[in-house]
Amino acid sequence: MSSSAVQKSLVVFGGNGFLGRRICQQGIQKGYKITSMSRSGAPPKNILPSDNQWVEKVNWKKVNIFDPETYADELATSNIVVHSLGILLEGRNYKETLNSFPGSKNSSVFCKNGVSSISPYPNPMDKSIYNSYDYMNRQSALIACREFLEKTDPFSKRTFVYISADQNFVGIPHGYLDSKRKAESEILQMKQNFENFQPILMRPSFMFDETISNDFRVILKDGLSLLNYVNKNLLNDTLSSFVRPPVSTQKVARCIFDKIEEEKFDGPVLLEEILKH
User: Fold this and answer.
1) Is the alpha carbon torsion for 21, 199, 35, 13 positive or negative?
2) Cα 146 to Cα 138: distance, rounded to the nearest angstrom
3) Helix (H/G/I), strand (E/B), else coil: 83
4) Which of 48, 80, 108, 277 has a CB 3.0–4.6 Å from the CB of 251, allowing a cystine?
5) Mean pLDDT in the chain?
6) pLDDT digits (tens, 9 = 90+) for 100-110
7) In Å, how far are 65, 88, 166, 241 from 126, measured between CA atoms?
8) Residue 68 in contact with residue 112, Cβ under 8 Å?
9) CA–CA–CA angle 155, 252, 209 (5° rounding)
10) Strand-strand pairing, 247-248 and 197-202
11) Which residues contact 2 (CB under 8 A, 6 or more apart)?
């Protein structure tokens, strides 16, 4: 079999989440072998009947990322890893806040072994770490990335996609974006120690799903779109540091695969580039 006929393997941490499911869908449609890793190991809920066509083709795997033995084998045989998990708000009521909106769901994946400054290793029984920007948005990505690079062939191209953020949303603590930017910086630094490493840092703004019409995100999307129109057309972009256009999870997923397939690309992917898809 020629190398061009070999099916590429891709792992999505948080593949049953709001964005993760669309990454899995796009990967299946493009002919990738897709494995979703999550705490439940279950497919996403509240999907359309048409989604069953790709959902049944994904390998839905239950893992505890605080225990790398539960996912190390999958990483060793994968060309690409996508880290699509994290928290928008810290605090024990984060999930309850999200789930108070109709149609809202939240899923997370967690990790174990320490990386660089992670000491002592997080205790998986300590529920407070699940609501920490540093653990969930930064350290989980670094752990997954290093585990991936250490387990895979250094002579082959290894791609790690990190879902970062365009900028802070109004009302969201600065710790959210700080944790994302720190993760970006440390992932990029790994290029110094690992050959054939392609880090891709996606920076979407507020995301919505094109197929969902009764979710609270649709209301926020419409409001943000209106504000962005006013800012662009009436205020000469004076509010660009506060008002940014929303983007669909489908566009983010399509952009991810376009960047994966760009042989020479690495680094941040800005919102303006994502919106073109």
Assistant:
1) negative
2) 12
3) strand
4) 277
5) 82
6) 444 444 433 33
7) 14, 19, 30, 37
8) yes
9) 140
10) unpaired
11) none
**Please, how many CA atoms are within 13 Å of residue 173, restricted to the half-sphere of its CB?**
11
Is the N-terminal amide bond of 49 cis, ω within 30° of 0? no
3-state class of 62 per DSSP? strand
Q: Three-state DSSP class for 81?
A: strand
- The one-character DSSP state at 127 is G
Domain ranges of the chain: 3-211+246-275
| Phi, psi dihedral angles at 119 (to 5 degrees) | -160, 125
CB 173 within 8 A of CB 137: no
Contact in structure between 176 and 168 (CB atoms under 8 Å): yes
Assigned architecture for domain 3-211+246-275: 3-Layer(aba) Sandwich (3.40)
Model confidence over 256-266: pLDDT tens digits? Answer: 999 999 988 99
Both tokens of 174, joined, read: 């600065």
